Amino acid sequence: MLQHEERFDYRLEALWTLRDALEYPVLDSSSQQQFARLYRAVPAATKLVETIGQKICQWCHDLQGRLQEDSGPGDPLWTGQRGFCVGRWIFVAEERLLELSDESSLGEETRESAKKAAQTMLKLSQRCT
User: Fold this and answer.
1) Helix 11-22 to helix 31-61 angle, to the nearest 10 degrees?
2) By CB count within 10 A, which of 3, 22, 41, 115 is most buried?
3) Are 59 and 84 in contact (CB under 8 A)?
4) 80-100: per-residue pLDDT in tens?
């Protein structure tokens, strides 16, 4: 599979995908625009967890997995460490995905995929530490 190709580094793209989907409130001052972005981004983030969740978990737990460039600052809902880290992993799995799985403004399929991704991340957490 392509994600196993060592010549590609997917960390930055993975971080951007998760950040766009999970680090913004569902509704804010630009609610229509924000909702449209979440509606597109949440399914991408959940698919990412399904596809390379184990690798993302390792990046969060491995200091050598830190991004070299100053990337991945938090957005309105994440004010912690930049890049991948255990705290961000927990925030995504235990807070945001579960919160979005109950968000009535999202479609049923999106809510179900958010719930499944949260469960996957919680299981992976037990194996990556």
Assistant:
1) 140
2) 22
3) yes
4) 888 888 888 999 988 999 999
Q: How far apart are CA 68 and CA 42, in angstroms?
A: 26
Distance, in Å, from the CA atom of 34 to the CA atom of 20, rounded to the nearest integer, reads 10
What span, in angstroms and rounded, lies between the C-alpha atoms of 73 and 16? Answer: 10
Tell me which residue has tokens 């194996």.
127
Best CA proximity match to 21, nearest among 86, 92, 82 = 92
pLDDT at 38: 77
Q: How far apart are CA 117 and CA 123, in angstroms?
A: 10
CA Rg, the chain, in Å? Answer: 14
What distance in Å separates the CA atoms of residue 58 and residue 110, rounded to the nearest whole number? 25
DSSP string, 13-80: HHHHHHHHHHSS-SSSTTHHHHHHHHHHHHHHHHHHHHHHHHHHHHHHH-GGGS-SSS-----TT--S
